[in-house]
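[stage:ingest] chain + small molecule (zinc ion)
[stage:ingest] validated
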Amino acid sequence: MTTPIPPAPILLKNTRVIDPASQRDEVTDLFLLEGLLLPVPATLPANTLCLEARGTLATPGFLDLHVHFRDPGGLAAETLMSGSRAAAAGGFTHVVTMPNSSPACDTPALLQRQFDPQLAVRILPAACITAGRQGQQLADMEALAAAGAMAFTDDGAMVSDPALMAAAMQRARQLDRVIMDHAVLPALAGPGVIRACAAATQFQLPIFPPEAEIAAVEQDIRLCRQTGARLHLQHLSCAASVAAIRAARRAGLPVSGEASPHHLALAAEDILTDDGNLRMNPPLGNREDLRMLREAVLDGTLSALATDHAPHAPATKSRGFLQAPFGVIGLETAAAVTYTLLVEQEGLPLLDWVARWTTGPAAILGIPPPTLADGAPANLALFDIVTPWRVQPAQFQSLSRNCPFADWTLRGKPLLTICAGRLTWRDAVRLR
Ligand SMILES: [Zn+2]
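[stage:predict] done
[stage:export] C-alpha cells:
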C-alpha cells in the first residue's frame, strides 16, 4: 500500500471563467491546491504548475449523463480505463455509465468495481431497473441504491410493461433516485433502423417510425404523473416527444430530457451513403425534428446534453447500415460539436451552454451543482473557442472510431481537464 502523491498546485492565468452555478463570467486566475479551488495566495508554493490560459474558457468539469463503457463484455470496443481517458479528453470529470454491459450491471459488485480512483473520470453509475435488463422482474433496487447507483435505467431497451415500470418508479421515488428511460416501444420500432428519407428508399432499409418514441414518451409521462417519480427521458429524437415533455414540465411534473450532439447536428436527410456510422437508436430525426430539438435545448425544455457514447469495434461498424450495430462515440467531440452548433450558430449564451453540461445534468441526478467557486472540489475543464479544430478519430483516446463527425472543422476543443485536483487531460500542442 503506497500513499498517493498529492497533485502539485496549479495556477491557470487569465482564463475566462464561465460558472453557471454562480452566474459568473469573468477573466481571472484560478488556483488549485490539494483537490480544491482556492483564492490565489500572495506567495505561490514553489512547486506550482503555472499555465498561461489567456483566450481560453474555464468551466466546471462536464458531466455526461449517458455513456457506454463496454466493461465487462466488450473490452475491444472500450474499457473503463479507455472510456475514462476519452471522457477526460472531452472535458468531462463525471460520467453516468449505462448498465448494458455484459453481464448487465444489476448487482452491487458490478456497480462498485466502477469506483476506481485510477480512472481519469469519476463514474456515477446507473444500475438496471430489471434483473439482467430482461424486462421481467425488478432488480434489487434498494441494494443497488445503497451500493451507489445514481440512477436506474435499462438503457438499450425500454421497460415497456407499464405495470412493471410503475412499480419501478414507486421504488425509485422512495429511494430518491431518478428513473431514466430509453423511450422506444419495441413493438412499434420493429426491425427499423432509419427514419423515412431518401437514403432509406435508396438502400431499401426498414423504417423506424417516430411513433415508436413518441408513444413511449407519452406512456412514461403518464406513469410519472401517476407515481410522482422523477423521470428522465434519454436521447430524444422527435419534435412531438419534445412537445410532450414541454407540456409535462409546464404542468409541474418532474420530467426531464436530454439531447445528444448527433441528434442536434445531423438529420436523416444528411445520410447520403450506406454508412453504418450514422446508424443509432433512436435514429437521426428529420429536419423538423432537428429544428425542434435545438429549440428545446435553447429554451431549457431539455436541460441536459448527453453523448450516448456507444463504442463499437471498427469491423462491426464498417458493415453498412443494415448490418452495423446501433450507436456512435461522442465523448471527444461533444463539447466542440455543441459549442459550434449551439453557441456559434444558434446564439445560445455561454452560461447556458455550460449549464447544459454541468448544472443541468447534476440537477437531474439530484447532486450538488458543479461550480468553480472558492472551496469547491477542483473539477474543471479548459476550452479553446478560438482556433478551428479538425476532428481526426485516429487520434482519439477511445478504443473505438465510430464517430459521425470525422473531418468536421469545429471550435471548442478541450485543452485541459482536472478531476479531483489531478491533471487528467492536457493538449500539449495547444496548451504549453
Ligand atoms: Zn438508449
